[in-house]
Amino acid sequence: MKENEILSRLEEAEHLEYGEEQVRLIQSTVDAADTYQNEELQFITRLALVTAGIFSGFIETAIISFCWCLATYDKDREKFEDFEHDILWAYKWIGQNMILFASIDKARQLDLIQDFERRYKEEGISLRPIHAQQVLNAIALGDSKEAVQSALTAFSQAPSDFYSDCVACEQNFLVEVALYQEDVKKAARYAAPIFNGSKVCAEVPHITYAIMTLPTLYNGDFELAKTYAKEAERLCLGNRDFIHELSDLIAYHVAVKQFDDALRIFNAVYRWEFETRVDNRKQRFCAAAALLFEFLPEQKLTLSLPASSDIFSEDGQYCCSELVSFYTKRSNFIASEFDRRNENSHTSNELEKFRATIRRYASP
């Protein structure tokens, strides 16, 4: 690819829908820019790869690209001053996703938040997004309810500005917090402007429909849960950014004994679990998959598991019982890695609670 063709290809890629095809095309522009050692082109193409990676489920790719851009920006801020907003905006996405990796310990998570906060303070930007991240981190780490509430109060008191999340993402954040508080009615009130279409974005209402499905079922509104599940599948299926959400849909269909639907979604998603390195998404998928195969009648299924998997079979035939064992071990191991990072048993406890609830519904 000639140097003057790189931006044309990048523009072509940015008109594609989020997904693997877009990521691959933008990656080709990054590779081409690297061959010319054109730092500005390297910067522009990698920034585009950050966005595509985040919204297409290639989080590792996005983080690597962002770190390169951040280091390059810090090295020569005058040269890249026009990209300051892009860097500070993308920093939010990176912070939101770093917590999903069990291998990134608490100290590094804290360093990230502190650096994030320092940069916003230097530019006089509201700390509202930082406080939102502190809420989500406290929930993920299994911190006390007081710690979550303290960060939530700081978020509520911080003003909105040009760097705040979009109104749809902030509304979905409030839904997530209400669900953490186990207040499904409050979550439904927060979700209302999302579901009526007044607050939407690239990931909302996709995520909102998915995270509301199981709590609505547990709250006894079976028809509404069915509606949410249908909408979540329509919006999420086909994009690996939504592995966690689709895993909850597998669990939902198991809970309501719609095993064919659960297996259909499993077949559409399971290859992504092997490809992604995002531990939070892997763990949720494995937990849901194990529950599915636990309730399916014993049979042999044809799957394209990678040769590196513990139960790889040349003929691609796998019994439900061995799939239960395989996915249970994977989900347990990842949960234990999160527990090690968090220095508590929060993730394992939540995993057992998830399993027990789905089993209670799915059992005869």
3D architecture notes:
Helices cover 72% and strands 2% of the residues. The protein has 364 residues and is an all-alpha fold. The longest helix is centred in the C-terminal third of the chain and has 23 residues, at 320-342.
Shape: globular
Number of strands: 2
Instruction: Please report which band the strand proportion falls in: under 5%, 5-15%, 15-25%, 25-35%, 35-45% or over 45%.
Output: under 5%
Distance between the termini: 60 Å
Please mark out the parts with pLDDT under 50 across 5 or more consecutive residues, or reply none: none
Total of helices? 17
**What value does the average pLDDT take?**
96
For the biggest sheet, the summary is: 2 strands, antiparallel
Secondary-structure element pattern, one letter each: HHHHHHHHHHHHHHHEEHH
Spatial strand sequence of the major β-sheet: 1-2
State Rg: 21 Å
Helix fraction bin:
over 70%
| Quaternary structure | single chain
Structural class per helix/strand content? mainly alpha
Annotate the secondary structure layout.
Elements: H1 6-14, H2 20-36, H3 39-56, H4 59-75, H5 84-98, H6 106-122, H7 128-141, H8 145-157, H9 167-180, H10 184-195, H11 206-218, H12 222-236, H13 243-255, H14 259-275, H15 279-295, E1 300-302, E2 317-319, H16 320-342, H17 346-362
Antiparallel strand pairs: 1-2
Helix pairs in contact: 1-2, 1-3, 2-3, 3-4, 3-5, 4-5, 5-6, 6-7, 7-8, 9-10, 9-11, 10-11, 11-12, 11-13, 12-13, 13-14, 13-15, 13-17, 14-15, 15-16, 15-17, 16-17
